[in-house]
TrEMBL record:
Similarity-based family: Belongs to the short-chain dehydrogenases/reductases (SDR) family.
SUPFAM superfamilies per record: NAD(P)-binding Rossmann-fold domains
Residue intervals of the Ketoreductase domain: 10-206
Domain of life assignment: Bacteria
Pfam families per UniProt: adh_short
Designated name of the protein: NAD(P)-dependent dehydrogenase (Short-subunit alcohol dehydrogenase family)
Amino acid sequence: MSTQGMVEGKVVVVTGAGGGIGRDIALAMAREGAKVVVNDIGASVSGEGNDAGPAQKVVDEIKALGGEAAANTDSVSDVVAAGRIIQTALDTFGRIDVVVNNAGILRDRFFHKMSLDEWDAVIKVHLYGAYYVSRAAANHFKEQGSGNYIHMTSTSGLIGNFGQANYAAAKLGVAALSKSIALDMQKFNVRSNCIAPFAWSRMIGSIPTETDAEKARVERIKQMTPAKIAPLAVCLASDVSADTNGQIFAVRNNEIFLISQPRPVRSVHRSEGWTPQSVAAHALPALKASYFDLDRSGDVFTWDPI
């Protein structure tokens, strides 16, 4: 282990860290000197089942590196269980410095076919989960006058995608949650930022590969390993990035993006006010040149990752 890592001595909770992006973030944090709580319920991509194995396996990997880690198998989607995740950090390491909200599931379905259960399950894990775990740490952060949140959002929410109303709504909600935390808690020296990761993982392993073009696309995506996300997460967790707060980043292979946040792009004004008819005759035609296309993430990120 390095004697002076970027997050030396910090206690970091990483949810959903039994595999994929979470695992690589947990390992990278440990390599840079953090003590890590590895949370994972060991469920399938759709959230079914539980297995203590994945979390413990990552803990064993960290200990093999000479680091310190503890496993936790509580669900982020239950408020009491989420509290136990943070309590594991306090009981094991005596404090909490960084929360990485990474746990997630998918229940993809076109909107007109989506069931209440498919909506509920995804919102519960991504949005409620990020809130529950963040809230459980908030008072500790306030009392110690420091703390750091890193949330995983998605271009499915920031931009759009087919068949993911539940996931997209949750992930855009996470971005707003992060900004609200940043605003409310900056006076306590607490920061909150988001990362939208592009990475090959179990969660996108169901992409169809029936045509040569689809197979080629999947091979390109596979270059975007979860390990590519970890350097930004570690840097955001460190004191080096003390002036970075309330931001949204994306990572795609070797690219790091700062993502825009909604701002007015054009306006129209009538001193006498508006009627439905004048909105139709004047406002919408004047604004139409600045309308946004019905983009999906892939329409915006059109070039191959390098």
